[in-house]
Each structure stands twice: as C-alpha cells, then as structure tokens.
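Justification of resources, computational component.

The compute hours requested in this renewal are based largely on the per-chain cost of generating structure records like the one below. Each record pairs the submitted sequence with a full structure-token output. That output is archived, and it is also reused by downstream analysis tasks.
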Amino acid sequence: RAGKAGLPGQPFMIEGVLDFAEATTDKGTALAANDVIPGLTIPANHLILHAGLEVLTAHAGTSSNTDFDFGITGGDLDNFVDGFDFDGASVGDFAASAEGGPVMVGATDTIDLEIQAMTGTTTGGSLRMFALLVDLTSQNATDFGANEVDRDTLA
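The structure output for this chain reads:
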C-alpha cells in the first residue's frame, strides 16, 4: 500500500508490507546475512523525515539472531533502523529509530531492508515498512490556486 495526501511542502506517509515467506520465494534460496530486500520507493525531490518498521507477524524459522537495518542502499543503509532484533520482537513492536537524520532524495530511490545478521533461517513473519515524506517540488512550477474567479457574476 502507498498513500499520498496534501500539497507540496506538507508531510504524508507511505507504507508497505514485507512478507518474509514471499521474499524467500522471490529470491529462490534461503535468505541470508547481507541480503538486501527492496522496500519503499521514494519519488524524486522528496525529503524523508522518518522511516521505520513495525512487526505485523512474528518471526518464523530457526534463526536466533536475525537483525535488520533499514535505509538507503548506496547511502546509509542503517540511517532509519540499525540492528532491529526481528526474532526477539513481538507483534506490534516498532523498531527503535537510528540516530540518522532526514534524507533528501533528488532522484527516485528506495528505502531497503538489509539482513544485517542471521543464524539459521527465517521462513516467515512480516513487517510494515513506513516513511514520512515531504514533497519538495517547487511550488512555483505549478499553480495550486484558481485560474479565474468570477465573483461579480455570481447571484
């Protein structure tokens, strides 16, 4: 799912669900440490104020050490979440925020999940990925007001 509300300059949230059974099927082999799973697509000219993870379905598998990072691949991969202990988390838990600040995205990019550590296997579980964004597209390029107003002829 994704959402967008408001005009340029107003914050809005996008979100999506990451299902680990589906991610394993998509990869074709078991998930492993250092795998990067594509997350949320961020449009060009957007500021990411905050991003995070929420456990929707508990971890399934044999891993007793499954930690995730969440950030921009090719940038700071743990900017928003650093070392979230998925196998130790419960449904409804949120990943603690990392110390990273807002990130400006000039060209379309993604916030991705990296399996930072894993022993054994992860065969199931799901996370809600979310991000709070602001569209910084110039408001001068688009007229958001009425083009004409004919108040005098209204009766």
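The chain has a mean pLDDT of 86. Helices lie at 20-27.
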